[in-house]
Automatic annotation (TrEMBL):
Superkingdom of this protein's organism: Archaea
This protein's name: N-acetyltransferase
Domain N-acetyltransferase residues, every copy: 1-96, 2-88
Species of origin: Candidatus Methanosuratincola petrocarbonis
Entry's Gene Ontology molecular function annotations: acyltransferase activity, transferring groups other than amino-acyl groups
Length: 96
């Protein structure tokens, strides 16, 4: 699955007519993961996780801290505590 960064979203083309997307914005030294969308027929197949992983890689490359706003990204970080060091220090500690 190839992930494209459009400057405000990470996108995976799934077919000619559908794609999955993780929208984000950057403020200062933080990247906010705003919303994730995966078409229903592709859910549960690791597409959303691949998008979050691309965002984590991008954040590391650019020296950014992550603020997971969308519910999917929040759940991803709960399930993958090995990435907690990338979370912004002012992020709600209950999700770390």
């Amino acid at each position: 699955m190839e992930v494209e960064n459009t400057g405000d979203a990470f996108t995976i083309r799934l077919s000619k007519k559908s794609s999955a997307e993780l929208a984000y914005h950057i403020e200062g030294s933080r990247i906010f993961l705003d919303s994730t969308y995966t078409p229903e027929e592709f859910r549960g197949k690791g597409v959303g996780a691949r998008l979050v992983e691309a965002a984590i890689s991008y954040a590391r490359e650019k020296g950014l801290k992550v603020v997971p706003v969308c519910p999917f990204a929040l759940e991803y970080f709960k399930k993958h505590p090995e990435h907690k060091e990338i979370l912004s220090s002012d992020f709600d500690a209950s999700y770390k």
